[in-house]
Amino acid sequence: MINEPTNNPLNNNEEHEKLVSELKNDTNQALQAVEKWKGSYVKSEQRVLELERVNRELQNDKEDLRRQIQAQRRIELDKKETREGNHFLDILNQKLDQQIIQQKK
Questions:
Q1: Which 3 state secondary structure label does DSSP give 18?
Q2: Contacts by 21-27 with C-beta closer than 8 Å and gap 24+?
Q3: Is the pTM of this model over 0.70?
Q4: Who's near 99: CB < 8 A, 6+ residues apart?
Q5: How far is CA 78 from CA 64, 73, 81, 84, in A?
Q6: SS3 for 38-94, per residue?
Q7: Would you say 9 and 19 are in contact if contact means Cβ atoms under 8 Å apart?
Q8: How far apart are alpha carbons 29 and 33 in whole angstroms?
Q9: Contact by Cβ (8 Å): 40, 46
Q10: Distance of alpha carbon 37 from alpha carbon 77, whole angstroms
Q11: Mind listing the pLDDT tens digit for each residue in 45-72?
Q12: Per-residue pLDDT reduced to its tens digit, 87-99
């Protein structure tokens, strides 16, 4: 067998340095991609939290409006009942006045 040297990058210093440099570049690019992804993920999570906060505020506003509408309806109903009661009392007073006038005659 002939002992021929194999072309191994570890045997050649320049090739070894080039390989190490390429691996470092690949690693740095991968780390940058990871950091970019992390940044996007954090932004997405922040956006989700912001939307959840806005949703809670809108739900609270909706509930407040519902309570205000109910209160306004009660007020309107009370006003209506008061008007009807007053109308009844006016009619009753008119009839009583007429009876008094007839009794005086």
A1: helix
A2: none
A3: no
A4: none
A5: 21, 8, 5, 10
A6: HHHHHHHHHHHHHHHHHHHHHHHHHHHHHHHHHHHHHHHHHHHHHHHHHHHHHHHHH
A7: yes
A8: 6
A9: no
A10: 59
A11: 999 999 999 999 999 999 999 999 999 9
A12: 988 998 998 889 8
Instruction: Report the amino acid identity of residue 43.
Output: K
φ, ψ (nearest 5 deg) of residue 19: -65, -45
Q: How does DSSP classify residue 4?
A: P
SS3 33: helix
* Model confidence at 9: pLDDT above 90: no
Cβ-Cβ contacts under 8 Å for 16 (sequence gap 6 or more): 9, 10
Instruction: For residue 10, give the DSSP letter.
Output: T
Instruction: State the DSSP code for 100.
Output: H
pLDDT at 75 over 70: yes
Alpha-carbon span 57 to 59, nearest angstrom? 5
